[in-house]
Input
Amino acid sequence: MTRVTFVQNGAAKSYDVNLDDLPYQRHGRRGSLLDVALNVGFPLEHACGGNAACTTCHVIVREGMDHLSEMDDAEADRLDGAWGVTPRSRLACQAIVKGEVTCEIP
Ligand code: FES
Output
């Protein structure tokens, strides 16, 4: 089990998920933060369907940056145009969860 926490408007919601058994929700990368959010019913916006073509799934990683997949060039390029981007920003549809993570929806 891995704990994934989403923080929105100051309120944190934590979910214990089994990453090996997570059914793929067909939006974003399999096992991504977006995939986890859709599996647990957390309402994370994803206007482009998880294709790194918008920035509505922008999150700021508060803890567990090392527990996410590396950012690729396409994600970095897309994030450049995101509102409020920080060094801890990721696109939830591209960042694959590998361990405990806390992220905030800006
Ligand atoms: S859902 Fe559009 S970039 Fe992630």
Observations:
- The chain has one domain: 2-104.
- The pocket of FE2/S2 (inorganic) cluster is lined by residues 46-48, 50, 52-57, 78, 91, 93 (CB under 6 Å).
- Residues 2-104 form a domain with the Ubiquitin-like (UB roll) fold (CATH 3.10.20.30).
- The CA atoms of residues 7 and 104 lie 4 Å apart.
